[in-house]
Amino acid sequence: MINALANHYILPHSGKGITKAMAVDALTKSINLDSSIANVFASVAVTANPDHSAHYFDLDQVDKHGLIEHDVSLSRNDIAFGDNHSFDKSIWEKVMETYGDAAETSFELASKARYGRLMASKKAHKEAGKDFEYGIKEFILSYGESALFLGSLGSPKEGKIPLEYLRVLFQDERVPYKEGWRPSSRPITQSDISHMIFSLIAANEHKAAEAADVGLGTVHAVTSALTSILPSYCTIM
Ligand code: HEM
Known about the structure:
Elements: H1 2-7, E1 18-19, H2 20-31, H3 35-46, E2 56-57, H4 89-97, H5 107-128, H6 136-153, H7 163-172, H8 190-202, H9 207-213, H10 219-236
Antiparallel strand pairs: 1-2
Helix pairs in contact: 2-3, 4-5, 5-8, 6-8
Bound molecules: protoporphyrin IX containing FE.
């Protein structure tokens, strides 16, 4: 999304010198993200700048592994395989295969696509004898990112967006304005994001296995962890 906003000249087109204020302004005005969430993202992004006295970030700094960037991206490869920041067509197309002939997303399909990518990434690490990093933080970010595209490109409640919008965001790195998308008429809040994350988890038929994998044991433990961690995580991140 931030690449897209830079491509639209809403953020600096060079991708350089993005201050917290610029990022918050772009996210609140362009996609109607609630300002408190926009502030969290923007504050974390600034910490990616290796110059700790700087009050801005460059787009090519936010791929710092373990900060926001993590294994199991839908459209990028994992750091163990080299390039963790360039769009990876084969990974993305594999993710999109899950949607088959569907014209729009649903919580079920988005959840299945995300889980499929998790399994593929895990397998690739195992086969290559590389360390795979997927714990509660990655779990929240991974689900959170699917929630973000569903919420910002569609209705935060329903999880439905035209697949065309998804392709435009990821493949063309722009917002699908000319395809008909318009920002949400009300701000997208943390509670919207939580609702979408829970809907995505509920739709995952392998949620128990994933809960065990991230060390929380049960789906109930995952839900409690999200309810208690997510709000504070958003505040402290
Ligand atoms: C200052 C604000 C933001 C920053 C610095 C930021 C940064 C990042 C970074 C570094 C990643 C890579 C994570 C990974 O390894 O997959 C990422 C992924 C993602 N971001 Fe953002 N982001 C911001 C705001 C947003 C917003 C508002 C959206 C709303 C659509 C969004 C949607 C996504 C999605 C869908 C992914 C997953 C990409 C994938 O799996 O390939 N981001 N973001």
